[in-house]
Amino acid sequence: MQQRNVARELGLAVASVAVLDHWLDAGPALLVAVLVAAAAALGTGPIVGEWRPWRMPAIPMMLPALAAFSIAGISRLVAPWPWLPLVFLAGWVVVAWSVSLETAPDVLAEPQAAVESGAAAGEAPEPSPDEDHDDGKSQTRAGLATPRIRAVAAAVDVTPPTIRVRPRPRAEFGLAKIVTEEVVPGTPEMPPHPRPLAVRAAGLSIAFLGFVAVGGLVPDGLAIDRSSLTTNDLIRFVILNALVAGVVGYRLAALASPHRMDRIVRIVAVGQYAAPVAAGAFVLRSLALPVLFIPALLGVVTYLLTDLRESPDPVTQNQRLLEELAVIGVAVVAVVLWGLFGRELFGR
């Protein structure tokens, strides 16, 4: 309960400063948005249990930082009254919710429970101080367990390929396959989140808010009057949208790869999200789709990237995913055509 109270206080402080972006010019507004996002991230670290910034885990800091960034950008798109107070209240709730989701008691209790369970199972015993070895040095480190690899005999399919009904979903190479045993490391950056569905929903929702915020931080980013952007503004628009997608991709990739040894997996996920969203932002803004068309479509792209990354089977063998991609693709084409040829709906 104490962490959730701190989350509400942090949300109040962040939202109070972020809405002041409404009265700033574009350049200072972007700087303030970045500083507010950094403040939200650094405010989350002590709740997790680290006071030194270079030791704070990055995973739980992503969504609160992006939520704070979103408040600053969206505040530039609305009128001071009555919409700005509503943005303040909604931003307060979103920041507090994201911080609470990342620092809930069941989340913070996981590392200690994992270490205790590992010690009880004898997976990572702590060496005795009196233990001696031939070289005079301890061969193990306290609390550190590494994945163990064992060879398991596997049956080899000798059926002639001509009479197979369908190809096997997994290819087996040789007489043995490598099986990795799941061993809980002693020094995780963050444990697996106990509510991955909530984190996924929060990440996709805040991603949409972040895309809307970029439209507020870049002048005419939402193409309300269908005017084209200058080259510098278009580059800034593409980069900011890519950063928003990269932050969300880092957090969602951590659902499956939360440990320090998986950091390279999350960094690769940043590029996997950022590159398609950057290309989509460039194309959609060049088409001058109006109002919220661009953020909504970029949100769809982020959702599809998440579906592709988390597919348990190859895409060509996942019938459900292929059907979903086809339906969403048709819907996206229809929305783009609506945005291009439905100008009379917006009075432009």
Describe the protein's architecture and organization.
- With 348 residues, the protein is an all-alpha fold.
- Helices cover 57% and strands 3% of the residues.
- It is built from eleven helices and two strands.
- It has helices at 2-18, 26-48, 62-74, 83-102, 105-108, 110-121, 196-217, 231-253, 263-286, 293-309, 319-341; strands at 149-153, 176-180.
- Strands 1-2 form a two-stranded antiparallel ribbon.
- Helix 1 runs parallel beside helix 3 (62-74) and helix 4 (83-102) runs antiparallel to helix 7 (196-217).
- The chain is globular and about 55 Å long.
- Mean pLDDT is 77; it is low at 114-148 and 158-188.
Summed up, what is this model?
The protein is mainly α. Helix content is 57%, strand content 3%.
Compute the CA-based radius of gyration. Answer: 24 Å
SS class: mainly alpha
User: β content, as a range?
Assistant: under 5%
Total number of strands:
2
Described by strand count, sense and barrel closure, the largest sheet is: 2 strands, antiparallel
- The proportion of residues forming helix, as a percent range, comes to 55-70%
Taking pLDDT < 50 over at least 5 consecutive residues as the criterion, the unreliable ranges are 114-148, 158-188
Order of helices and strands: HHHHHHEEHHHHH
Number of helices: 11
What's the arrangement of strands in the largest beta sheet?
1-2
Q: Overall 3D geometry?
A: globular
The multimeric state of the shown protein is: single chain
Q: In angstroms, what separates the terminal alpha carbons?
A: 51 Å
- Write down the overall mean pLDDT: 77
